[in-house]
Structure formats: C-alpha cells, structure tokens
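Final report, Chapter 2: Outcomes

The project's central promise was a pipeline that accepts a single protein chain and returns its three-dimensional structure in a standardized token representation, suitable for archiving and comparison. That pipeline is now operational. To close this chapter, we reproduce one record exactly as it appears in the project archive, with the input sequence first and the structure output second.
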Amino acid sequence: MVPNGIDGIDIVVRQPVYHVFEILERSFGCFGKKAAPDAKQLKFIIDDVVFRFYGADSESWGAMTLFATGDPFFNIELRSEAKAQGYKLNQYGLWLMEDRIAGKTEKQVFDALGFEWVEPKNRNTSNRNKKVLRPIEQTLLKEEE
C-alpha cells in the first residue's frame, strides 16, 4: 500500500527501459505486455504501487530527473517559467527552437532559466498557488546582506 500523497515510484535509468523490463521479467516473472525495444518509459503495478521507469541518455539526464521529481504543480511552474522566457522545457531538455540548450544536469536547466536549484525534497508544493522557484539574483542579494 502506498502512503497518502504518493501515487507511485518514478525511477530514471541510463539504459533503455527495454533492458529494465527484461531484467525484471527474468527476476520476478512476467509483467504482461512486453516493452518495445524503443520504449521511452516502462510502467507496471505491484501490490497497488505504480512503478515508472524512464530512460534517459547523458544529454537529457537532468531534464528527465526534473520531470520525475516533485509534484505536478512544481513541473507546471518550471515549464511555465521556461515558456515565459521563450523556451520549451520537457523531459528531454530545455529548448530554444530546435536547439537543446540545457538538460545534462538539473542545475544546468535551473541556471539557464535564471533560477536557484531546488532540492528534490523541496519540489512538492501540493499547492497550485505556492511558488517554489527563486531567481538567482534574489538569492545573491540575500547572501550579500
């Protein structure tokens, strides 16, 4: 049983999720429909707990971990800020037109958007009206005082 407020467990892996499926199937038995070799994510349920595996390469690792951590309101806030600055942010990176300008690390994405890095434990706002992001300039001013 999953504790209240948690809808599952998200795991980001560096290898194709198809290999994760093969390992789990060998270890624990069949999970039903096989994962396609080009699958970007794998989802299965054990004892009412949803497990989601996301595959990420080195160029998208940071963006994928941002996508997989925090609540939906945090993701909406971060993506809205990116859009307001003329970018597109998704689980594969921060984009300006067709060019990925950040995504290798979470910090790279935050820096490119001009925000202080937010620890994963502080990304659960549970409140659409609570803002989590703080501009880097605001942080620097507080340190100087």
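Archive annotation: The helical segments are 17-28, 61-68, 72-84, 106-113, 136-144.
This record, like all others produced under the grant, will remain available to the consortium after the project formally closes.
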